[in-house]
């Protein structure tokens, strides 16, 4: 039973991983990258694909604003069917917002710290993971 659940979890994570380096929580319903979803998704990836775990967190942190703010939703793609989308939030009007991605101006509970700690604990190559963490934290 455990093996079957593990296989299903991997299949869902891999199916929801997008070309832009992020994972959607649910096709159709949640078509963008969500802050705390990405944290837990990265922990899942870390158990079988460390590079995807790092990509998930790197993509999230690439949307960080100049003041350190990490947004609730990152709009990597255009999707007119989702409301309230990027046009509603208009984060680009804030002078410190990410110039790379549109996002919300709201956040979610801070999970990035303990997620990176979990990824380090799971990683077989501790030096590589520590290098990644230092690189991402030092933005």
Polypeptide structure, described:
The chain is mainly alpha-helical and 139 residues long. The protein has one domain (2-137). 47% of the residues lie in helices and 5% in strands. It has six helices and three strands. The protein has helices spanning 2-16, 35-46, 50-61, 86-89, 112-122, 126-137; strands at residues 33-34, 73-75, 102-103. Strands 1-2-3 form a three-stranded antiparallel β-sheet. Helix 2 (35-46) runs antiparallel to helix 3 (50-61) and helix 5 (112-122) packs antiparallel against helix 6 (126-137). The mean pLDDT is 95.
State the main characteristics.
139 residues, mainly alpha, three-stranded antiparallel beta sheet, 6 helices, 3 strands, 5% strand
């Amino acid at each position: 039973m455990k093996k079957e659940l593990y296989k299903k979890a991997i299949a869902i994570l891999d199916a929801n991983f997008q070309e832009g380096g992020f994972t959607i929580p649910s096709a159709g319903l949640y078509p963008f990258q969500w802050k705390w979803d990405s944290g837990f998704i990265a922990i899942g990836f870390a158990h079988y694909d460390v590079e995807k775990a790092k990509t998930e967190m790197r993509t999230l942190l690439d949307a960080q604003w100049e003041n350190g703010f990490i947004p609730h939703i990152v709009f990597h793609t255009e999707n007119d069917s989702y409301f309230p989308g990027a046009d509603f939030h208009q984060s680009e009007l804030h002078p410190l917002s990410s110039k790379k991605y549109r996002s919300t101006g709201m956040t979610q509970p801070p999970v990035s710290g303990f997620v990176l700690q979990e990824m380090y604990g799971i990683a077989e190559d501790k030096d590589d993971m520590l290098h990644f963490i230092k690189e991402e934290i030092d933005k």
